[in-house]
Amino acid sequence: MAQFQAAQADTVIAPSLLAADFARLAEAADAVEGAVDWLHVDVMDNHFVPNLTLGPPIVKSLKAATDIPLDCHLMIERPDRWAVGYAELGAYNVTFHAEAADDPVALAKDLRAAGAKAGLAVDRDTPVEDYLDLLPEFDTLLIMTIKAGFGGQEFIPAMLDKVRTARRRADSGHLELRIEVDGGIAEDTIAAAAEAGADAFVAGTAVYGAADPADAARRLRARADAARTPR
Ligand code: DX5
Ligand code: ZN
Is 225 among the residues known to form the active site? Predict the structure, then answer.
């Protein structure tokens, strides 16, 4: 019955700096200030994924350059060794990949102890069922809607089955869990992800590929909000 439903969490829009000009990251943050909730920072180590992006020194500089909460998505090997460092630099949320972690629950506890939200990511080929029982230990579940590694790929609708599965578990377990989708999120795909149960949306190309990134982020939010409105 409607009156017993928990209040729906506000939509989170998280532009991915991967699609911005890496020589102008502070300007990219300023361009979306006031229109977004988190800034998504894709850390890639050329081992867990073939691509190589940025690491702690740049996250440190970003933290000093913007007040937008930083959502660090670590596509790296050995997150047990490196992830807490991002929390210590002041990242709001630190998400590591399930495929790379030795002990995801221990690492989530360490992240929370260091003052960050703890996120678990599952890549395209990883079943979410294997991790459902761990979700009470996490603040964020990131479901890749592409294969992790590069921006600008095409959204894979079949990944939304994982979102639906995770949403059912989060709701039945009364978990305070953000369900975040990442990859190919744009004006023509965000509604389907929102309907499936996602409430946090990473968008690289759709925001920084637009002439007006803040306006693009606002349009994405409007579409997500409309799709999330209970009918
Ligand atoms: C890719 C990254 C994504 C990427 C998304 O592995 O995790 O965050 O920036 O880019 P788009 O939105 O262009 O698919
Ligand atoms: Zn990402």
Answer: no
Choosing from 42, 71, 139, 199, the catalytic residue is: 42
What percent of the chain stands above pLDDT 90?
95
Domain ranges of the chain: 12-210+217-227
| Cβ atoms 213, 207 nearer than 8 A | yes
How far does the centroid of ligand 2 lie from the alpha carbon of residue 41, in Å? 7
Give the confidence band of 96 by pLDDT, cuts at 50, 70, 90. Answer: very high
What's the token pair of residue 77? 């090997």
Burial class (CB in 10 A: 0-12, 13-18, 19+), 22: exposed
pLDDT > 90? residue 6: no
**Would the annotation count 73 as a binding residue?**
yes
CA nearest ligand 1 atom 10, residue: 151
The pLDDT value recorded for residue 9 is 87
Atom of ligand 1 nearest to the CA of 203: 12
* Class of domain 12-210+217-227 (CATH, top level): alpha beta
